[in-house]
Amino acid sequence: MSANAAKELSPELFEPVASEAGAEERILRERVGFWKDAWRRFRTNPGAMAGLIVLALIVFFAIFGPMMNKYDDHTNNLTISNQEHIGDHYFGTDNLGRDLWQRTWHGAQVSLLIALLAALIDLCIGVTIGSISGYFGGRVDDILQRIIEILYSIPNLIVVTLMLLVFDPGIVPIAVALSITGWVPMARVVRAQIMKLKSQEYVLAARTLGAGHRRILFKHLIPNVMGPIIVAVTFAIPSAIFFEAFLSMIGLGIRPPQASLGSLVFDGYNYLQIYPYQLFYPAAILCLIMLAFNLVGDGLRDALDPRMRK
Amino acid sequence: MSKTETQDKEVILSVKNLKKHFVVGGGQVVQAVDGVTFDVYRGETLGLVGESGCGKSTIGRTLIRLYGVTDGSVEFKGKNVHELKGQELRAFNRQMQMIFQDPYASLNPRMTVMDIIAEGIDIHGLASGEERRKRVIELLKVVGLNEEHADRFPHEFSGGQRQRIGIARALAVEPEFIIADEPISALDVSIQAQVVNLMKKLQKEQGLTYLFIAHDLSMVKYISDRVGVMYLGNLVELAGSDELYENPLHPYTEALLSAVPIPDPKTAKTRERIILEGDVPSPINPPSGCRFRTRCPKAMEICAKEIPQWKEAQPNHFVACHLYNE
Amino acid sequence: MSKLLEVRDLHVSFKTYNGEVKAVRGVTFDLEKGETLAIVGESGCGKSVTSQTIMRLIPNPPGFIKEGEILFEGDDLAKATEKQMEKIRGKEIAMIFQDPMTSLNPTMTVGAQIIEGLVRHQKMSKAEARNKAIEMLRLVGIPSPESRLAQYPHQFSGGMRQRAMIAIALACQPKILIADEPTTALDVTIQAQIIDLMKELQKKTGTAIILITHDLGVVADIADRVVVMYAGIVIETGKLDEIFYNPRHPYTWGLLGSMPRLDLRSDQKLLPIPGSPPDLISPPKGCPFAARCKYAMKICKEQMPERTDISSTHQVACWLEHPMAPDVKPPVAAVGGTKDE
């Protein structure tokens, strides 16, 4: 310390100060809950944010797009068939003269609905089976795991084909058909997480306090598996959309005149050489949905991953 | 309490020939705890030390029913804890509590401190609404925290604060007996002293009985009235804490004591150390006879053949070693 | 003796979501040939960051050296390129870590891991390196080294792994060995083995050791000099006896006073330090320990104390050393246990 500085110090600076009671225990950072913290991390991920914006736009158009011109999705008008630029048919018309703007957004609606419904069913069955299997372990786990293995060993195309031969392919039957084997990955994720978490000390603490199975599952385990569950759902949705598109391609999907993105791509594919625009719009939207969900899923995984927590 | 009058005290917990084996893959059996006998007196602190894998944590978890027993019995206030049912079990869950090792894993990250501490209150329906909040804030103050901490989440706290929240959770059901399973091992030295002093204070105020499990012999000796030393699933020696340090009987205790670093350069440089050769054998296939014989500097022929008896070699000083056969 | 390593006013920060964590905020110390320097402090005090910065092992981003110099035999490692560092790491400065399991490659035999370094740094032939590896394993007390050479890390026990790590680290005869909590993950009896081994090896090889630890017991056993860190700064530094028998900083008093001593009767009183270390995203303006310090004065909260010399080897950064400060005696718990017989 320089001599000058020493002179400037006044003696009263050297009076002891009593430390405030509890001051050393004070937490200075603002209170941050789990979701807020996750959102802060998610926000800083440009890819994930772009995905979220694209998704929001697509959902917006899927809902409000059909209100933006005066056509509907099933009225034929053969006088204007296969026109790329005509009036306010923004996406042109198809071989029957139906408005492709209408059909594309109705199709997106159908695709998203099927996927959401399928993911929701996966979620319910997967979380239930996964948590029972992981939590109780032992014999219960053995039996459930064998069932899962059997289900998983049957090619799901066969299961879905059989289902759709029995039921009329509509939104609900397709979603149900997709879920018959679709819940398996979700159950596996949940089972693995629960098995890991059930030996955590906070669960042991709850057990020593006399907590029952229900309390441990719903208060301690499932809330802590929410992160991986949400991530699994975000990845299940695009795969359901893709599978539905595939079903439409082989003629097992949504029946005309209703359309889904998959059936539109299939229709467009038939005219690819002459009218490429008919394939382009639905295919582009399909790709965007897939890409966006994957980006969002990656972002969520990073944001919800506890190892990233600081 | 003084260490000599323990024999007049009421036995609160009695462990007899406790065995806990785990079946691992391939039909192999880990003999984590193999025939341990000891009593805990009301109001005392019994320390349990040993190196990793010696079975000390398994004992703690078996006592509080997180594990079942393979053989032997655990009696808490005269009742076998593994046969409790219904009302008696609920009462037991309140009377015996546990403090855990890892301050980061022992609090549910998705619950607020309020809900964490109130868990026992909720399970046993002890209070609700405003009364519940009041009780939690009271408990927070007991462990040196305050009201403003109640609505925060565990990750906002430091290790020492989290450990104190864990203590408050255990205290919420007004237990008589607390098993502290390595409660300070994950904490920094200065914070360790905070937690240990808090535990001592609580014991004095509420008449708690502790089973204090740790691998840090200096801290165990500091907090405990009596100390038990474990090696590979067996209790090898049990005595008053000063007696154990001044007059260790078992060769393993001797080696352990001499290996503990002492934060004083003069002592550290002059004292004689017994360095044990090799590592602890596997509890899957432990050595025959005395389990310590493979590393014991004083091993004899009989050590490989016979399991040493657990006996009171000197008043209130138990040991299992062939050196002390009559 | 001459200075092997000089760290001058080192600042290291990490960028996080919450802001810049100033993990090391002006650390200065030096290391002489053949000595053992212990850096002690609690978790988060910056001791490990300092040692990893010397090796330039801090991932960037998020970590970066804000300012300061790390002079190793006159070269500034803080400005060295990755290529230059590759020549220094392992050969000139080696490091062993707390958890040997994560620092050994699980898919390579232990022998291959020793030989790799020897071939690269010492330009040995495979056969020479193999012989040297066997010699090293024998040196660190691993029985039947010839057969151990072909084994994988998971076939070693915890203590053996740490021995193997030391063998790898010392194989190229480094001038400095940085040991980051080398015994923390080990049981006491194994810990005693490793400390003995390190002392013995230092006698044989003359390697200077930087020991990073929180365990004052280990420090008392092995160190020549001690650097005490708190919240990213060095608060006290001195010879082993100066730190243990004439500690000047209240934090050092706290550290010494909060450790129970096995050799004292159980009526010993522990002196805990209240509270927790400060948040290094917004460290306090003055002395970082002021909020937890029983002797804090007004000035402590406003101005960072400067280093004061107690002796030519003993420095402390505390306002209590200022002539205008009140005279304060260290609590008995901190120095009381050290009375001579």
Automatic annotation (TrEMBL), chain A:
Gene3D superfamilies: MetI-like
SUPFAM superfamilies: MetI-like
Residues annotated as transmembrane: 48-68, 110-135, 147-165, 171-190, 229-254, 279-300
UniProt name for this protein: ABC transporter permease
Family: Belongs to the binding-protein-dependent transport system permease family. OppBC subfamily.
GO BP field: peptide transport; protein transport; transmembrane transport
Residue ranges of domain ABC transmembrane type-1 in the record: 108-297
Signal peptide: none
Top-level division of the source organism's lineage: Bacteria
Record's keyword terms, sorted: Cell membrane, Membrane, Peptide transport, Protein transport, Transmembrane, Transmembrane helix, Transport
InterPro entries: BP-dependent_transpt_permease, MetI-like, MetI-like_sf, OppC_N
PANTHER family, per the entry: OLIGOPEPTIDE TRANSPORT SYSTEM PERMEASE PROTEIN AMID, OLIGOPEPTIDE TRANSPORT SYSTEM PERMEASE PROTEIN APPC
Organism: Thermoactinomyces daqus
Subcellular localization, as worded in the UniProt entry: Cell membrane
CC terms in the record's Gene Ontology section: plasma membrane
Membrane-related topology note: Multi-pass membrane protein
PROSITE patterns: ABC_TM1
TrEMBL record, chain B:
Top-level taxon in the UniProt lineage: Bacteria
Keyword ATP-binding attributed: yes
Matches recorded under PROSITE patterns: ABC_TRANSPORTER_1, ABC_TRANSPORTER_2
Keyword hit for Nucleotide-binding: yes
CDD domains on file: ABC_NikE_OppD_transporters
GO MF term set: ATP binding; ATP hydrolysis activity
A GO BP entry: transmembrane transport
Limits of the ABC transporter domain: 13-257
Keywords: ATP-binding, Nucleotide-binding, Transport
Pfam families: ABC_tran, oligo_HPY
Family recorded in the similarity comment: Belongs to the ABC transporter superfamily.
PANTHER family: D,D-DIPEPTIDE TRANSPORT ATP-BINDING PROTEIN DDPF-RELATED (PTHR43776:SF7), TRANSPORT ATP-BINDING PROTEIN (PTHR43776)
Name of the protein in its database record: ATP-binding cassette domain-containing protein
Source organism (scientific name): Thermoactinomyces daqus
From TrEMBL, chain C:
Signal peptide start-end: none
The entry's keywords: ATP-binding, Cell membrane, Membrane, Nucleotide-binding, Transport
Name of this chain's protein: ABC transporter ATP-binding protein
Record-level GO BP terms: peptide transport
PROSITE patterns given in the database record: ABC_TRANSPORTER_1 (PS00211), ABC_TRANSPORTER_2 (PS50893)
Pfam families found in the cross-reference section: ABC_tran, oligo_HPY
Top-level division of the source organism's lineage: Bacteria
Coiled coil location: none
UniProt GO cellular component terms: plasma membrane
Entry's Gene Ontology molecular function annotations: ATP binding; ATP hydrolysis activity
CDD domains in the record: ABC_NikE_OppD_transporters (cd03257)
